[in-house]
Amino acid sequence: MKKIEAVVRLSRFEKIRDGLAQIGVKFFTLQEVKGYGLQKREKLVYRGSVYDADYIARLQIDILTTEDMVEPIITAIVSAGRTGEIGDGKIAVYDVEQVVRIRTSEKGQEAI
Fold first, then answer.
1. Using CA atoms, how far apart are residues 5 and 89, in angstroms rounded to an integer?
2. Segments making up each domain of the chain, as ranges
3. Per-residue pLDDT, 49
4. pTM for the whole structure
5. Class of 2-111 per CATH?
6. Which residues of 61-96 are buried (b: 16+ CB within 10 A; e: fewer)?
7. Average pLDDT over residues 82-106
8. Best CA proximity match to 55, nearest among 41, 68, 39, 43
9. pLDDT, tens digit, for every residue of 47-89?
10. What is the side-by-side strand order in the sheet with 29-35?
11. In this structure, are strands 89-95 and 2-8 parallel, antiparallel, or unpaired?
């Protein structure tokens, strides 16, 4: 089993979500994250005023999956999330030792 962790632009989330749904990914967790990188900073607009933020706002998508789905998921995220500009994000893949579904106590692939 694998965990895919993708940090992506907020503006590309709907396309990424739709791309994942097309390949059968129906569940993932999502959280708003802040970071700092090559892009340096973003300009934020609030009530018509422009502010410079010292951080970069992004979304982190976490997906637990089987090994055979890793490449299709990465392909879906990259194709939907790419703008060609600095700051498109990163994807990391981790090995997962065990997954347990709390409600039913199912383990492994059945728990995903």
1. 11
2. 2-111
3. 66
4. 0.83
5. alpha beta
6. bebbbeeebbebbeebbbebbeeeeebbbebebeee
7. 94
8. 41
9. 776 666 667 889 999 999 999 999 999 999 999 999 998 889 9
10. 29-35, 56-65, 2-8, 89-95
11. antiparallel
